[in-house]
Specification:
alpha/beta; 12 strands; seven-stranded mixed β-sheet; binds pyridoxal-5'-phosphate; globular; transferase; 13 helices; about 375 residues; Aspartate Aminotransferase, domain 2; three-stranded antiparallel β-sheet; Aspartate Aminotransferase, domain 1
Length: about 375
Amino acid sequence: MSFDFAARVERVEPSATLAISNKASELESDGVDVVDLSVGEPDFPTPENVVSAGQDAMAAGHTGYTPSNGIPELREAIASKLRDDGIDAESDEVIVTPGGKQALFETFQTLIDDGDEVVLLDPAWVSYEAMAKLSGGTLNRVDTAPYDFQLEPALEDLEAAVSDETELLVINSPSNPTGAVYSDAALAGVRDLAVEHDVTVISDEIYQQITYGVEPTSLATLQGMGERTVTINGFSKAYSMTGWRLGYLHAPESLVSQAAKLHSHSVSCAVNFVQHAGLEALEHTDEAVLEMRDAFRERRDMLADLFAEHDVDVPVGDGAFYMMLPVAEDDQEWCAGAIEDAHVATVPGSAFGSPGYARISYAASEERLREAVDRLAEHGYI
Ligand SMILES: Cc1ncc(COP(=O)(O)O)c(C=O)c1O
């Protein structure tokens, strides 16, 4: 039988990152040693105390449904963490979700109607475009590539894009795929535009704890932004908990009560014992976070130096664990060749809206990063 698919699913493409990792798996199953720098996940185990908390919670019988928006202790701990960041947060303004991705998905579905304008800063994480399209939104994209991926010099371009027609603006600092951490002046510029044009802003802060020598500002702390910001965060990156699936959104209660309808009718709740593990992560896991952060910083510096030795100047950000390597104009061909010939997996910049680059995740050991650079050089890719 031929299915009559909904227009919404036909509007989106499968994730480009997945296509690369499929190719890497295919080569690996043929016995090829692939250096996979395409995946956006820390290569560290989940901290032991968090694993134990999850196991203990399971053993203690925390295996049933929880209140849809999350267990009260975790919602309160999240609100308290947000208050520490300077956000005026209460626990009833928090929804605990299975991953930050679900929190983002619920936000798009709650706010965007057919034809509503969503403004993205390119290069932008791949799923924002898909989420906007799935909810019927139209995209308006502002390119930060000409400004080494910084927002402050791109503010004039953003000003030209944002208007009274704009429903939603997405800010992701520290950024995937560039690692850029936006300055306070840049965020103030975002605030001025959002307030002037009455725009809601998603502030995706999933890489907040992974920064090098800078303190990222939460957008919702800026005057006038608390009432129009949806703050997204999660446990995947900071605590190396990608497979646990745990994240959250914080927004004004009026928005939370609408999003909660989607949440309860789709996922019901995040996994019960995982929420208990999340509580342990938030309250008792500072050291492991700092160790991972220091390791990422060393890798970033080493990788940038290795590329510099080959006369490749890579714009390096102050956060997350990604960098955008300038490559050939046809970045898709470059990435396909790099994996085929050099057995190094990266993601084409065009998947993020910025052709001419390849995104590298440096969440890999120093040895594997060296190996990747050697192979790319040996096969003439740098
Ligand atoms: C920018 C950004 N936001 C959100 C997410 C979602 O992460 P998770 O659903 O694992 O919490 C990711 C994951 O790669 C990301 O890179």
